[in-house]
Design a protein that fits this description.
mainly alpha; 3-stranded antiparallel beta sheet
Length: 488
């Protein structure tokens, strides 16, 4: 299979527009037509800007190729609990069977793209994969000892890998630990991806609390890596955090990150740093100061406190909240449970009303977010809708809209499963209007499915991440209130 390449100049224009507060002409979030990659989805984006060809996987034993997988033979007539079990467990295979055999880190995607292949691992997607490993351990799909040793292999590899002022690049070579440039000048530190990685690593440090050599070593290395991050360096002596820095190109990428989008976790962690934290002013005068931060308008009769009109792609309400518990989480700007739930409801309502008359849309077939699509890669949302449904959008919204997400899950599995169910769970996306069904899987789309379903079922990852003392301190420093912050 092959997909049209994403125009990389559009990708960089988009990233520049998000950071500056001036969205480029070809953006998904102003209501204007056009194609773009997602914010973090840049994470994927280049993963998707690739030309897509399937490749043999290098894992022992190699998982069955998708051409051999018989979706029609999947279990039928499952009750809700059994279906959730199956979806989580099957999707976990992406992070276990398909993990890079040398480093254990998560591969960017399940297909070759843009002349890159199976050596490309993603730091942000690895953070999501780490949280998936915790779910698998807790549910006893793998033994705790196997999980701890797998994690220890990961962090030992990271400890020797390229980093810049303690911050990892977007992509690494999974065999050597050397940086793989994301673009010509994006060849150094990526603070957003590193934040997603450490959301997972801090969660793992809280979970693997056993008194044995493996788990002690694991916790120690995670703490060393955490304490090495020079968050304050990435202010560039200003009151805002910058996405990139490179020893070759310095601050040439020039992307100050302002809200509201998927990067809230970066500001929370930067305030939580032990040795090199940032001040609260960086959050209030950097993140919270943009012309697309506050909203307050209604869309389809549903109020949206923050962000772009109609909310943007749904990953905004997923990535930072894999660990950060939105239940009762408030600051002076918003109630984040209301923000995330209403964002989801607006997204679904758009699909139910289906103003563009796309085939298949409805109450059980919804979910617009960044993903592969029939012409490459795009950040789908109500204001940038080309008929592509991405399963992670509805499934990672289980905590916010459990009944609606279950409707979507049953439709995806029971009605569309012959076309979209695979050895790694659901494919990345599909478009019934175009009669297009992806063959690809992306780490940053598969991971949130496992994690957010678990948070809906048990709150496991939320409890672990919120228990980290540094996180508690950072949230208090920024003025957050939550029943899950001690002393509140």
């Amino acid at each position: 299979m092959s997909d049209t390449l994403v125009n990389m100049s559009d990708t960089l224009d988009y990233k520049r527009g998000i950071s500056s507060g001036k969205l480029p002409k070809r953006t998904a979030f102003t209501g204007s037509p056009g194609k773009t990659c997602c914010l973090l989805g840049l994470a994927l984006l280049v993963g998707v800007a690739f030309n897509v060809d399937s490749y043999a996987q290098k894992r022992k034993p190699a998982p069955a190729a998708s051409v051999e997988f018989n979706a029609a033979a999947r279990p039928k007539n499952l009750d809700d609990s059994a279906l959730l079990d199956l979806v989580q467990k099957q999707t976990f295979r992406y992070f276990w069977d398909f993990a890079h055999p040398v480093s254990g880190l998560s591969r960017e995607r399940s297909n070759n793209a843009y002349s890159y292949g199976p050596e490309v691992v993603t730091t942000g997607g690895t953070g999501f994969g780490i949280m998936a490993v915790i779910v698998a351990t807790e549910r006893k799909w793998i033994s705790r000892d196997s999980a701890a040793r797998f994690m220890l292999k990961m962090v030992r590899f990271l400890h020797k890998s390229d980093s810049y002022h303690g911050v990892f690049p977007h992509w690494l070579n999974g065999a050597t630990g050397k940086t793989i440039p994301f673009s010509r000048k994006d060849d150094g530190a990526d603070l957003v991806e590193t934040s997603f990685l450490f959301q997972g690593l801090l969660t793992a440090r809280q979970y693997f609390n056993g008194d044995n050599a493996t788990e002690r070593d694991l916790r120690n290395i995670i703490s060393w890596l955490w304490n090495d991050i020079e968050w304050d360096w990435f202010t560039n002596n200003q009151e805002v955090l910058y996405w990139h820095w490179s020893p070759n190109n310095g601050w040439a990428m020039n992307f100050p990150v302002r809200g509201f989008n998927e990067c809230l976790i970066m500001y929370v962690l930067a305030a939580s740093g032990e040795r090199y934290p940032v001040s609260a002013n960086v959050y209030h005068r950097g993140w919270a100061q943009s012309n697309f931060f506050k909203n307050g308008k209604e869309f389809y009769g549903i109020k949206l406190p923050l962000g772009f009109d109609y909310g943007g792609p749904l990953f905004f309400s997923h990535y930072s909240f894999l660990g950060l518990d939105p239940r009762g989480l408030e600051d002076q700007y918003a109630d984040y449970w209301e923000q995330n739930r209403n964002h989801t409801l607006i997204n679904r309502e758009h699909c139910v009303r289906n103003p563009n008359n796309f085939k298949g849309y409805g109450a059980s077939n919804w979910g617009l977010t960044a993903s592969d699509t029939y012409h490459g890669y795009d950040a789908h949302s109500p204001s940038n809708d080309n008929g592509t449904i991405t399963p992670t959008a509805a499934l990672s919204a289980f905590p916010y809209t459990p009944e609606y997400s279950m409707q979507a899950l049953k439709h995806f599995y029971n009605e569309l499963g012959d076309k979209i169910w695979t050895e790694y769970g659901f494919v990345d996306a599909f478009n019934e209007t175009q009669n297009w069904y992806a063959k690809s899987h992306l780490a940053i789309d598969q991971g949130p499915i496992i994690v957010m379903i678990e948070n809906y079922r048990t709150g496991l990852l939320w409890k672990l991440f919120m228990s980290a003392p540094e996180v508690q301190k950072g949230l208090k420093k920024l003025g957050f209130k939550s029943p899950h912050i001690s002393g509140d």
